[in-house]
Amino acid sequence: MSEPLTMAMPKGRIFDEAADLLREAGFPLPPEFDDSRKLIVDVPEADLRFILAKPMDVPTYVEHGVADLGVAGKDTMIEEARDVYEVLDLKISECYLAVAALPDYKKTDINPKVASKYPNLATQYFKEQGEQVEIIKLNGSIELAPLVGLADRIVDIVSTGRTLRENGLVELETIVPITSRLIVNPVSYRMKDVRIDNLIERLAKVVEEEEA
Ligand SMILES: Nc1ncnc2c1ncn2[C@@H]1O[C@H](COP(=O)(O)OP(=O)(O)OP(=O)(O)O)[C@@H](O)[C@H]1O
Ligand SMILES: O=P(O)(O)OC[C@H]1O[C@H](OP(=O)(O)OP(=O)(O)O)[C@H](O)[C@@H]1O
Q: Which residues form the ATP phosphoribosyltransferase catalytic domain (predicted)?
């Protein structure tokens, strides 16, 4: 018996949509999979082992080869810049990254501060814009930063726009659209290519059908 393929799944909002896609692709994930507190879940019927990680950590597990595959937001992929193959746009968890501020925000050259959960991405973005800013790394509730004067702008995810609206913030620029991606460890891809190719094909078919 060969080892099962190991897939790193992000806990949180991507999880349900990713699990649905896998089920639609014919992988028999048990119902308790969705609510379990277990961090390693074997599904021998599907020849798969799942490891459940923080969304931002999924590319790390895949890069190190402890997971053959994973599901990660494009935001995470840009921020983490890990050495993994991005093989399929799953077209789930759609949102985008934007710069936002209070409506009375005025651009200043004196010590501009930007709060974000994505310091690398934000640094790169402002560099491309030719603007020098100080990035303040936060781990969540980013919209709070301009409200309390920690930063004058933020770089964060926007989906419905509700969080910006309810906190009286306005969007200044759109940076990049985001969806979740299927990622693969380069060595696994070479060693287990038939099973990985099969999984990619099955998921690609479901994504295509959902789009039609
Ligand atoms: N409001 C949103 N709507 C749709 N997709 C989102 C939204 N916020 C984030 N995402 C996508 O879902 C991914 C995971 O987000 P989630 O909020 O579950 O975890 P997280 O904020 O990274 O982790 P945690 O809250 O556990 O620190 C993000 O990397 C992004 O691709
Ligand atoms: O446009 P919306 O639909 O309002 O979604 C955007 C919000 O969702 C995410 O936050 P999350 O809920 O993950 O909380 P966090 O700030 O703690 O990361 C993101 O960071 C925004 O704050």
A: 54-204
